[in-house]
Specification:
By secondary structure, the chain is an alpha/beta fold. The chain has helices spanning about 5-20, 25-40, 40-60, 90-105, 145-150, 160-175, 195-205, 215-230, and strands at about 1-5, 70-80, 80-85, 125-130, 135-145, 155, 185-195, 245-255, 260-270, 275-279. The chain contains 8 helices and 10 strands. The protein has a 4-stranded mixed beta sheet with strand order 4-2-5-10. Strands 6-9-7-8 form a 4-stranded mixed beta sheet.
Length: about 280
């Protein structure tokens, strides 16, 4: 049994939140650069170049890469041989978030859903925990902006709709969103499970590097086919048309009930921010 004080988790969350608020992921930057090189529409190319320049300035000057510094999503894979000591886990996570958002001068965007009164410190974070093998903790921190989150959809498809139904649902979601989620987008998809389970899978899919395909052949086919259909929509960067409406499609799956085919489509804007660490 390995003892880990939750103060260590708090510090790691703090470091991850500070970094994520300022930096897009390496795979996001590479995908944006590829999109810029391939773009023949001059307006869309200018928009892509501007987005890349914005990311460079944010990194160089240690400033938020987007004004929407997001709602903090934290995923913890906790080894079953880990014994946590210290303050409660959720308190440690939230303390790390609130300190990072204060020190980074990040916008505090979390509020009561009814009164709309702001909590003032960007907490509580959305915390997902999973018990795994071993004596380590794998941490993923992702700030999720709501311009893109609001464009997400959940479908309860019929089993007979199959892979084509899934591809159509993914494409429809992006088409209905149009320019509102600040494309080029990254599309996370959850397939199977339950109503709530597939939504978590979709969020988890967004933590994968852009261009990393699912190891299962049938799922990778859906990713590729959906991406091709999305980029044929001609929405383009910031809605200026062009070749790249989406940087990628990432799907995660789980077994489901014989009577259902849940599909969740979680949209991420071009500003992909995600930090992973291990304790």
């Amino acid at each position: 049994m390995r003892k880990i004080n939750t103060e260590i988790i708090e510090r790691k969350i703090y470091e991850a939140a500070l970094h994520a608020g300022i930096n897009v992921t390496d795979s996001c930057r590479a995908a944006m650069q590829d999109a810029f090189k391939a773009e023949t529409n001059p307006t869309a190319a200018f928009a892509l170049k501007t987005l890349l320049s914005n990311a460079d300035v944010a990194r160089e000057k240690a400033m938020p890469v987007c004004q929407d510094t997001g709602m903090a999503v934290v995923m913890l894979e906790i080894g079953q041989e880990v014994f946590l000591e210290g303050k409660p886990l959720a308190d440690a996570v939230n303390d790390g978030v609130k300190k990072a958002y204060a020190d980074g001068y990040f916008r505090k965007s979390v509020c009561d859903p009814i009164t709309r009164v702001n909590t003032g410190d960007n907490t509580p974070a959305v915390l997902h925990t999973e018990i795994t093998k071993g004596d380590k903790i794998k941490l993923t921190f992702m700030p999720k902006g709501f311009g893109s989150e609001n464009m997400s959809r959940l479908y309860m498809l019929k089993p007979s709709q199959g892979a084509q139904g899934i591809i159509d649902a993914i494409t429809e979601t992006v088409k209905l969103a149009g320019s509102r989620p600040c494309p080029p987008v990254y599309v996370g998809v959850g397939i199977g499970g339950t109503f709530d389970g597939c939504a978590h899978l979709a969020k988890k899919a967004l933590t994968r590097d852009v261009g990393q395909y699912n190891p299962r052949e049938e799922i990778a086919f859906i990713e590729c086919a959906a991406l091709e259909k999305i980029n044929a929509l001609d929405i383009g960067c910031q809605g200026f048309h062009g070749k790249t409406t989406a940087l990628g499609v990432a799907c995660e799956w789980a077994p489901t009930h014989i009577a259902g085919l849940p599909v969740a489509v979680n949209i991420q804007c071009h500003c992909i921010r995600c930090v992973k660490a291990e304790i």
